[in-house]
Amino acid sequence: MDEGHVDRCSPRAAPEDAVASHHSAARLFRLPVPEHPFEHVTVFDPGDRRFRREIKSHVTLRPLPVATWRGRRVTHPLRTFIDLAGWISLVDLVTLGDAMLTLLKLRRRDLVDYCAASTAYYAGLASNAASYVREGVDSPMESRVRLLIVLSGLPEPVVNHRLLDARGRVRRRLDLSYPHLKLIIEYDGRHHIERVDQWASDLERREEFDDGDWKILVITAEGVYKHPMRTLERIRRNLILRGCGSVPPLNPVWKQHFSA
């Protein structure tokens, strides 16, 4: 995290009982959140609200769950999730939720229950997003690929499926897959190309799956951001070819969340 962000949220910039919130809270927790031009601070008395350039000051008169993180007061991650529901997209919010479970070791059930019980203004939006959050997700792009698939109406892939050897030990972990179809959806980022050793390892891994009749469908960033329709058509076609049965046509709802 940029130290400049931390400094603008420090006690020097706000009353002592103020808390970093919204985007600033997410940044302090080192969670993936879209860039935002302002830092966010929440205070508990309207008289404590301070107007400064690059700081968005919020006021609440209601109890607010507060945590201490790296020596700073910050809204609890579960409350941060709700607060951000009014500021970022559904896809970004689910990506944030997936990362919260992985990086902060929170439980999905706790997130879902907290959002359902909350009376905060954006609790409804947060509850909807929480229903899409999954445990075991390793990267923001995996979240985006999964959301693209789910919002299109295609069957949801299994997250973090584990293949075991004869002794019951984990042999491979599949980020996204349809185990009953032996179909793997694999996001391949730029780092795989830039690192020769990783590239060689991936080739060997893919050959191993080919020998076991698995099909690996590789998705790139371009396939998510520039050609999502083409990506969805590839996935739908492979689901049909692998014997998925009745695969629904693509639901155009996905276009509300991804550039078509």
Extended strand count: 9
**pLDDT below 50 for ≥5 consecutive residues: which ranges?**
191-196
Note the run of SSEs as H and E: HEHEEEEHHHHHEEEHHEHH
Q: Can you give the helix content as a percent range?
A: 40-55%
The end-to-end distance, rounded to whole angstroms, is: 32 Å
Strand order of the largest sheet: 6-7-8-9
Q: Taking Cα atoms only, what radius of gyration do you get, to the nearest Å?
A: 21 Å
Number of helical stretches of at least 4 residues: 11
- Indicate the mean pLDDT: 87
- The outline comes out as elongated
* Secondary structure category: alpha/beta
Report on this model:
This protein is an alpha/beta fold. It has 2 domains: 3-130, no CATH class; 140-256, Endonuclease, Chain A, CATH 3.40.960.10. Helices cover 40% and strands 18% of the residues. The protein has helices at residues 3-8, 22-28, 77-84, 90-103, 108-117, 123-130, 140-151, 190-194, 196-211, 221-225, 228-241; strands at residues 19-20, 39-43, 55-59, 66-69, 72-75, 158-164, 170-178, 183-187, 215-219. The strands form 3 sheets. The chain has a 4-stranded mixed beta sheet with strand order 6-7-8-9, with helices on both faces. The protein has a 3-stranded mixed beta sheet with strand order 1-2-3. Helix 4 (90-103) crosses helix 7. The longest helix has 16 residues, at 196-211. 33% of the residues are buried.
Looking at this protein, list some descriptive labels.
2 domains; Endonuclease, Chain A; elongated; single chain; alpha/beta; 260 residues
